[in-house]
Specification:
Blueprint (H helix, E strand, L loop, with lengths): L3 E4 L5 H12 L3 E6 L3 H11 L2 E4 L5 H15 L4 E4 L14 H29 L2 E6 L2 H5 L5 H21 L4 E8 L5 H4 L3 H8 L11 H12 L10 E4 L7
Parallel strand pairs: 1-2, 1-4, 2-3, 4-5, 5-6, 6-7
Helix pairs in contact: 1-9, 3-4, 4-6
The structure holds acetoacetyl-coenzyme A and NADP nicotinamide-adenine-dinucleotide phosphate.
NADP nicotinamide-adenine-dinucleotide phosphate binds next to helix 1, strand 2, helix 4 and helix 7.
Length: 241
């Protein structure tokens, strides 16, 4: 039986590339998304991958969503926590909603999602959890107090859950991509991108979503059974953690 993989935020950007790569590697894949129905339906038509809409910042929505995926496809063997947002602003102008939206979506979602699948993974003595953190959780970023805090929190979550899962075959790892060519980076100030970010990337270019996806496929594989609690840095040399 093929293993079942669930990718949050799986219909666009890095998540879409992860879904496509996992499917090519032989997994049965489910892609969650938050609200962009048109893109999700287009992704489903193009890839044949089932799509599921729910808000990863809601524990109840995650419980219902995971239940539906498992009813359709079977128990989840691989969970990729990829869904994420930015609400950039310097702290002295940041509104409480910008703080809580980013913390709840990017970090709260790890509890909301992992809690749904961890008992089954422990019982079956196999599981792979991959959390998509960020270079900006490792180094901090001007204008991203909320995002950097959430992404750093994802790394702590990863290291703690890895200790709990190690004896029962559940590995938990984080990937910290640098700046990747997706809608998220298109949405930031292109002046800041050109003047402040790109000159700091030694390989001289943004990363591609597929480059992150290949890291996920490896961490999800049997070959990666020795690797747990780790942070895989994929940023073109911009920062050495
Ligand atoms: N370090 C120090 N000073 C900085 C700085 C930095 N990194 N960036 C900007 N400044 C300075 C500016 O030079 C400017 O100085 P002057 O007033 O002397 O000209 C001052 O701070 C104000 O800068 P802005 O005009 O940019 O400030 P703003 O309040 O209008 O905008 C902002 C704030 C929206 C956060 C903007 O700075 C910005 O977009 N920054 C980039 C944030 C970023 O990298 N986001 C990543 C999004 S993609 C992502 O998050 C994916 C991922 O994981 C990598
Ligand atoms: P993206 O292109 O903006 O896509 C985000 C995906 O997340 C979409 O599928 C979106 O669904 C989904 N999503 C957002 N909020 C959600 C919610 N509340 N519930 C469920 N799904 C939700 O982003 P990306 O650039 O691919 O980033 C993916 C992940 O990588 C994020 O965690 C991001 O922080 C991280 N990352 C990105 C970069 C980068 O440079 N791009 C670098 C490092 C880390 P809809 O389509 O329905 O909106």
């Amino acid at each position: 039986m093929p293993r079942v993989a669930l990718v949050t935020g799986g219909t666009r950007g890095i998540g879409a590339a992860i879904c496509i790569a996992l499917k090519a590697a032989g997994y049965t894949v489910a892609a969650n998304y938050g609200g962009n129905d048109e893109t999700a339906q287009k992704f489903k038509a193009e890839t044949g991958i089932n799509v599921y809409k729910w808000d990863v910042s809601s524990f109840e929505a995650c419980a219902a969503g995971v239940k539906q995926v498992e009813a359709d496809l079977g128990p989840i063997d691989v969970l990729v926590n990829n869904a994420g947002i930015t609400r950039d602003s310097q702290l002295h102008r940041m509104k409480p909603e910008q703080w809580s939206a980013v913390i709840n979506t990017n970090l709260g979602s790890l509890f909301n999602m992992c809690r749904q699948v961890i008992e089954g993974m422990r019982e079956r003595k196999f599981g792979r959890i991959v959390n998509i953190s960020s270079i900006n959780g490792q180094k901090g970023q001007f204008g991203q107090v909320n995002y950097s805090a959430a992404k750093a929190g994802e790394i702590g979550f990863t290291k703690a859950l890895a200790q709990e899962g190690a004896r029962v075959g559940v590995t938990v790892n984080a990937i910290c991509p640098g700046y990747i060519a997706t809608d998220m980076v298109k949405a930031m100030s292109q002046e800041v991108l050109q003047k402040s970010v790109l000159p700091q990337i030694p390989i001289g270019r943004l990363g591609e979503p597929e480059e992150v996806a290949r890291c996920v496929v490896f961490l999800a594989s049997d070959d990666a059974g020795l690797i747990t609690g780790s942070t895989l840095t994929a940023n073109g040399g911009q920062y050495f953690a």
